[in-house]
Amino acid sequence: MDARLPVRAFFTDRTGGVSARPFDRLNLATHVGDDPSAVSLNRGLVEDLAEAPVAFMRPNHGTTVARLGESYLAGGEPPEADILLTTVPGLALAALAADCVPVLFHDPWSGAVVAAHVGREGLRKGAVDAAVAALHDVRGGWRGVGDITVAIGPAICGRCYEVSTSVRAEVAAVHPRAKSTTRWGSPSVDIPRAIATRLGHLGIKRIVQHYYCTFEELRLFSYRREGETGRQAGIVRCEGPATAG
Prior knowledge:
Blueprint: E1 9-11, H1 36-50, E2 54-55, E3 65-68, E4 83-86, E5 92-97, E6 101-106, E7 113-118, H2 120-125, H3 127-139, E8 149-152, H4 165-174, E9 179-181, E10 187-189, H5 191-201, E11 206-209, H6 223-226, E12 232-237
Parallel strand pairs: 2-5, 3-4, 8-11
Antiparallel strand pairs: 1-12, 4-7, 5-12, 6-7, 6-8, 9-10
């Protein structure tokens, strides 16, 4: 699905790939037990869609930022990070997720793009702030933050992401808008809503939110629903500063 950013960016689902059950079909993760050759073919399909080499991450539910240079145009070992950033035109970045939130950023001033994986722990630890701070480091300050565009991808919604009362309180202590209740009346957290709220607090107003719930939508991978399953991704391609040329 189109991420609706000013550059080429999209979110994948589980359709169109070659992986067998329970990873059917467009699984993009190498760490879930899928056949490596199938994952390689799937990643090749995504590179065709991006019309660019795609750098993937090894998420660790934290706030680590990896800035990728030109060497990744020829491939490279995926960094252990939840936030990828590049200013290299022609390089695309991928944020893997299956209930957590893939978040894509574009800054027209510097041309920088960011792909971030934000789960419950990443949200609590400050992954959103880390992604925005990394962009500001590249652009040399906070002026013009309103020009940054962000797409929040499909993720498990607050009506489905059941947690304990103590976990909800822990996350809500940092992000009050994360506090939610499931459809069946138990404690939950709403990570996409908390991300959108925090981005607004940081001055970012151009936010495109995709409200598909991974737990409810069978065409999306959901770890909560299936346990052993694949991962979809948010993909964003760097195209250089808007003023280039």
